[in-house]
Design goal:
With about 325 residues, the protein is α/β, with parallel strands linked by helices. Helices cover about 35% and strands about 15% of the residues. It has one domain: Rossmann fold. The strands form 2 sheets. The protein has an 8-stranded mixed beta sheet, with helices on both faces. It has a two-stranded parallel ribbon with strand order 3-6.
Length: about 325
């Protein structure tokens, strides 16, 4: 399942996404974890020290390799240089799968050992001084969107993405790439304002959205979130001594996480797994094509000097049964 964690800056979405990743790894599930936030903290939340986090390869720096691999023998794509972040797969394209080894993972993913298992971690890379004044962060996340467009995942396989804060995800079509979006909200007016904005933007795109209440300290906080989020409120999380120790760089064994918080993580996995039966690969493919055509018209055609709409394979539908070339 493809799962996004979103929310206001400081809401705790990176902490909760890291806990969920640990929960999946402890259960033996294959996981690809992606840090797509402008503030790159997922590695540290998964236990990497500063040097290890700094040494993670940035996906954006390997974009030519990613494009070349995913292009495969697709005759509709003249060259890897003509691909943009929204280029959809077609006949002859190579696809990514969670459990395989491939050149994209070799270049961009690193294994992170966790209690009871390991995950593949990929990062977009930091927003550097060289980017100031000449780039926006969406140029960094383009590599993630391209990979998600070419990703085929099955049941009991997980791709967990720690997204950029607020509603920045709507600057591209990446918000439609997920089976489940968990919005982390604090019990404050600012905390729920991002929820309302996200729900409004996502309304017409079939996005499955659930709220995870964080930093909930008592009945008043719970009542506030229930009033604001209604049935979208899935679970709430309160204070955690385990998390406090983790943030100090001294995480206990994961099986020592408080039972109330472990129960919340189990509820997240159950909710994500339940979306599998309602997957609609045709809608998923149609949406990526729609966003590709939007990007082509607004900037892609001019930048590449070609009609990018010609990259669309009208008969292709992404799905688990698709067999891509080796």
């Amino acid at each position: 399942m493809k799962i996004a964690f979103v929310g206001k800056g400081g809401s705790g979405k990176t902490t909760l996404s890291s806990l969920f990743i640990r929960h999946l790894a402890a259960a033996g599930a294959p996981v690809v974890a992606i840090d797509a936030d402008i503030n790159q903290h997922l590695g540290a939340a998964l236990g990497l020290d500063e040097a290890e986090s700094a040494g993670l390869p940035a996906m954006g720096e390997h974009l030519p390799l990613i494009k070349d691999y995913l292009r495969g023998s697709n005759p509709r794509i003249a060259s890897a240089e003509k691909m943009i972040k929204t280029t959809p797969p077609g006949e002859g394209s190579r696809l990514l799968r969670v459990r395989e080894d491939n050149p994209v993972y070799d270049a961009c993913a690193r294994p992170v050992e966790l209690d009871g298992g390991a995950v593949r971690l990929m990062v977009t890379g930091h927003f550097t001084d060289a980017d100031l004044g000449v780039a926006c962060y969406h140029s960094k996340t383009g590599a993630v969107e391209l990979c998600l467009n070419h990703l085929v995942d099955g049941p009991d396989e997980y791709v967990v993405v720690d997204m950029t804060a607020g509603s920045d995800s709507f600057a591209s079509g990446m918000f439609t790439r997920f089976d489940m979006t968990f919005l982390v909200a604090e019990p404050t007016r600012k905390g729920v304002s991002v929820y309302r904005q996200y729900k409004e933007y996502a309304r017409d795109f079939g996005v499955t959205l659930k709220v995870v209440g964080n930093k909930v300290q008592g009945p008043d906080d719970l009542d506030f979130l229930r009033e604001q989020a209604g049935d979208d409120l899935l679970v709430t999380v309160g204070h955690s001594d385990w998390v406090r120790a983790m943030e100090k760089g001294r995480p206990p064994r994961f099986d020592l996480l408080e039972e109330v918080n472990a129960r919340a993580l189990r509820a997240l996995r159950t909710a994500a797994d339940e979306t599998y039966g309602s997957r609609d690969w045709r809608r998923y493919t149609r949406q990526m094509v729609e966003f590709h055509q939007r990007n082509a018209r607004s900037w892609g055609n001019e930048r590449t000097g070609t009609d990018l709409a010609a990259q669309v394979d009208p008969g292709f539908v992404l799905g688990e049964e698709v067999v891509a070339p080796a």
